[in-house]
């Protein structure tokens, strides 16, 4: 079984690169005018889940933070893809 040091040796540089990419993404958003939307809110929620996963593995906490937990299907799809974060229904 690999040790923590083995895991660091194998994966640290890749994780470091991804962390820098995330920081650059957040900097890009900060530098521009306009408003963010539900995806940015979901991203922050996922970052929080990664920092404070509770009793779950971090990957599970992040995936759950970015998942749509609604159980009722929508009447009609408006696109053929996904947004990557749940869009809260703000219509009454």
How would you portray this structure in words?
- This protein has about 90 residues and is mostly helical.
- It has 2 domains: about 1-35; about 35-70, no CATH class.
- Helix content is about 55%, strand content about 0%.
- It is built from 3 helices and no strands.
- It has helices at about 5-30, 40-50, 60-65.
- Helix 2 runs antiparallel to helix 3 (about 60-65).
- It is extended, with a radius of gyration of 17 Å.
- The mean pLDDT is about 90.
Summarize the helix and strand pattern as letters. Answer: HHH
* Tally of domains: 2
Spatial shape: extended
Radius of gyration: 17 Å
For the sheet with most strands, the description reads: none
């Amino acid at each position: 079984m690999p040790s923590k040091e083995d895991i660091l040796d194998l994966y640290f540089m890749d994780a470091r690169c991804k962390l820098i990419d995330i920081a650059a993404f957040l900097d890009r958003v900060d530098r521009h005018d306009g408003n963010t939307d539900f995806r940015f809110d979901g991203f922050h929620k996922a970052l929080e889940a990664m920092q404070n996963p509770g009793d779950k593995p971090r990957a599970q906490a992040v995936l759950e933070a970015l998942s749509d937990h609604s159980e009722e299907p929508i009447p009609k799809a408006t696109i053929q893809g996904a947004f990557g974060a749940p869009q809260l229904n703000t219509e009454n």
